[in-house]
Amino acid sequence: MPNGAPTKITQASGTKGGIGESMLRPDGTLKVTGEFAYGSDMWHEDMLWGQILRSPVAHAEIVSIDTGEALAVPGVYAVMTYDDLPTEVKNYGLEIQDTPVLAHGKVRHHGEPVAMVAADHPETARRAAAKIKVEYRDLPVITDEASALAPDAILVHENRTDDHAAHVPHPNIVHRQPIVRGDVAEARRRADVIVEGEYVFGMQDQAFLGPESGLAVPAEDGGVDLYVATQWLHADLRQIAPVLGLPEDKVRLTLAGVGGAFGGREDLSMQIHACLLALRTGKPVKIVYNRFESFFGHVHRHPAKLYYEHGATKDGKLTHVKGRIVLDGGAYASSSPAVVGNAASLGVGPYDVDDVEIEAIGLYTNNPPCGAMRGFGAVQACFAYEAQMDKVAGELGMDPVEFRRRNAMSQGSVMPTGQIVDSPAPVAELLRRVKALPMPPERQWESSEGADVRQLPGGLSNTTHGEGVVRGVGYAVGIKNVGFSEGFDDYSTAKVRMEVVAGEPVASVHTAMAEVGQGGVTVHAQIARTELGVAQVTIHPADTQVGSAGSTSASRQTYVTGGAVKNACELVREKVLEMGRRRFGSYHPAWATAELLLEGGKVVTDGGEVLADLVDVLGDEAVEVEQEWRHRPTEPFDLRTGQGNGHVQYSFAAHRAVVEVDTELGLVKVVELACAQDVGKALNPLSVLGQIQGGTTQGLGIAVMEEIVVDPRTAKVKNPSFTDYLIPTILDTPTIPVDVLELADEHAPYGLRGVGEAPTLSSTPAVLAAIRDATGLELNRTPVRPEHLAGA
Amino acid sequence: MRVNFTVNGRPQQADDVWEGESLLYVLRERLGLPGSKNACEQGECGSCTVRLDGVPVCSCLVAAGQAEGREVVTVEGLADLARQRSDGLSACGTPPGEAGHAQTRDTCSQSGESGELAPIQRAFIDAGAVQCGFCTPGLLVAADDMLERNPNPTDADIREALSGNLCRCTGYEKIMDAVRLAAARQSEGV
């Protein structure tokens, strides 16, 4: 067992500690003392360090690879290339297995893995990797829609056989999803105003702080134990085992501590590489990316170009929406097909529109691969449709919030996919609430000692004391799906056990859910307390010794794995009550007649009468249940019309941004970013706030600073560091007041609604709207940079 | 080379250190103190913040050799540091001269298993300032240093002091709450 292997955590609660309480994290103490072991903290006697050599160019044939010099470096144990892969399975991928473990004959993007080294010191491994000689012959780069679809375009992937290959109009299009509803041509004639817009959304990085990392330990049975920071253990397993040529039961994954994810750990990174090196050398191998490599080591948020036409009548009702959304998926598919489906199906936003034509496509290019990031296709669309809503409101001379209110969808609305929204959709109410929050005071930088420059655009650079500073206010609202869509079997599994330990009833919960910081472990313990009436809950480390939990993505884990834990607890409770009836049923008629609950370590009737202590009911027996749980099934979208009940649940958030812009220098200070969100039921109100504020801040980042800059001539990444890729600091981030609404969704466990992503959608367009309000500029791209504003 | 320095109140000795190794690497990989985190290794994120002779530094940017003969406090030593501040005593109980060899992992100030937390650590848990927790050790060291110098910070003071520490999960609101809470508890003597 390596150092840092996760262990069970038992948390006791003085209160009921059930759902609805702001319980504190069971891993909180470990995290503040430095004891919590992340993937990069794993350590094993005799372990080696793995290092991946990556392509310095975006698109090239590999003429030759010479590993001789690298192998000769003292301390090097192995150097591996494509030729050393052990089986016929040499690719992996979440939806399409198009991603080579190590490049074969060709590299398709800057930073693609080409070879790898294991050595006894990380610096030795780095230096040896640099001694591998690779000769490249450059190929032309595909960097955008025009170059991807040009008549003579090189195909990024030849001979495609994936499920989408047959229906896409060009092999450099991964997937295309139209959404067609009503009659746009007819509706267009009813429009009093028609507004067109073209929008550009930059490439965002998840920028989780804990770099990709893990430790592979070869096992005596010929298998391998992998401790890794990931978002979905079983999806990793499914992709890893065939490449290693091992049956899945010989590849055992355990979740190491995860330093944030945000979608960036859905795809494999170092998993297969570490396993291959461990099996080759017979020694444990640890791989930890540094930040530079991390920028190349995971997919990013799809940059997008979006073209919209909105029409409306004079009284402020939308007549139609036409949209075309072009997402750049980069060199490998990752989750591009699902991102396309989301962008298309959510491309109108949370509004009632009968006549819709949307087309979304995902491109194959030689840009960095793009895939999942918080908001998943809905983010790009929201940025554009909300800009359009402001533009239409401007044309109509109508208040932008009022215009949104007149078109806001509600429970019973029909989506452009034909799906009826059959749970609360309080879009107008969220806008009303966020608008009703008190405004931050004007000239908030003024203090008794003059201007506090820290509160002004430019901050401590001391660029203004208020001169040239103009305030603006903007609003936005968005719609996000919760859970995996389009007919995916999106289940989770929970194993729950109840027994008496040291004289107390204890529930233990074992799932494969990846705790990435979101607080799923806290919520699981709360659910167990609520359902089983115990104070002490033990959370088992997540691993592949229990069934799949699905991904920690799509705002789904509290719903789906939470649902699985609830379900398993209910089954345990039934068994416990059955035991109680057997043992004590004859002593009290209520055992047979009353509704029985587990509360405070006892079996009680719904009238509150205590029938037995759980300790006595259980005795020395343990009750254990492992069970899969599923939400309502979904359907694929029709490939021509996009019609279908594609989504599980919808979630909504609205933002109001207040910004101050130094119009002379183009510097922006976001003064406040208020959010209202419906969460159905807040299982842990403290965690809910953390999700909303964190998601809001990532939306702020892509509004005013974050962008991976790719050279359009070479498709090379220009800013792979935290020096050049800026994420919001505590100085860039304003106060984020939050108004949480809880309107139960009767289809979901406890009525809850997935929380994590919706706030990332509307945050960005709200900030953009506020900057437009302050400057009067059109601003059709995000992030906004000073040069877009200066001198306005 | 060999590096001798004091970590969390205990003399430490690291052998076979390559000259290019950072203080962060030596703490994490040679002294068994992985609490300081390796998020960027470029001095941009603050996750590796430790105090070097009392001054917060990014330990990824300090060559291990520069720590020779100096005192380092990491997140693993915050509870002891807080205890020393409150009672002016060394809580470790081991006179400096009797410290064990560098490779030992079992020392009272390093294990973090003392059960007691520094007020800033307690406040981060209570305020919900910890999500993934990867930025937390660096933020704790930076916040603890600020509260030592400035027990009653304004919000602008807190933001300025913590502006070198990136967090990607929380949106910083709960971190602000945590530092305010620690300051309030400190001034109330709780």
From TrEMBL, chain A:
From the UniProt entry, list the residue stretches annotated as the region Disordered: 1-22
What would you give as a GO molecular function for this chain, any one? oxidoreductase activity
Q: Which residues form the Aldehyde oxidase/xanthine dehydrogenase a/b hammerhead domain?
A: 33-140
The organism named in the record is: Streptomyces colonosanans
Query: What top-level branch of life does the organism fall under?
Result: Bacteria
| Phylogenetic lineage | Bacteria, Bacillati, Actinomycetota, Actinomycetes, Kitasatosporales
- What are the TM regions of this chain, as residue ranges? none
What is the protein's given name? Answer: Xanthine dehydrogenase subunit D
Q: Which PANTHER family match?
A: XANTHINE DEHYDROGENASE, XANTHINE DEHYDROGENASE SUBUNIT D-RELATED
Which Pfam family, just one, is annotated for this protein? MoCoBD_1
Automatic annotation (TrEMBL), chain B:
Q: Which InterPro entries match?
A: 2Fe-2S-bd, 2Fe-2S-bd_dom_sf, 2Fe-2S_ferredoxin-like_sf, 2Fe-2S_ferredoxin-type, 2Fe2S_fd_BS, Beta-grasp_dom_sf, Diverse_Oxidoreductases
Signal peptide as annotated in the record: none
Classification via PROSITE patterns: 2FE2S_FER_1, 2FE2S_FER_2
Q: Where in this chain does the record put each 2Fe-2S ferredoxin-type domain?
A: 1-78
Q: Which Gene3D superfamilies match?
A: 3.10.20.30, [2Fe-2S]-binding domain
User: Quick one: where's region Disordered?
Assistant: 93-113
SUPFAM superfamilies found in the cross-reference section: 2Fe-2S ferredoxin-like, CO dehydrogenase ISP C-domain like
MF terms in GO: 2 iron, 2 sulfur cluster binding; metal ion binding; oxidoreductase activity
- Please give the name of this protein: Oxidoreductase
> Source taxonomy lineage?
Bacteria, Bacillati, Actinomycetota, Actinomycetes, Kitasatosporales
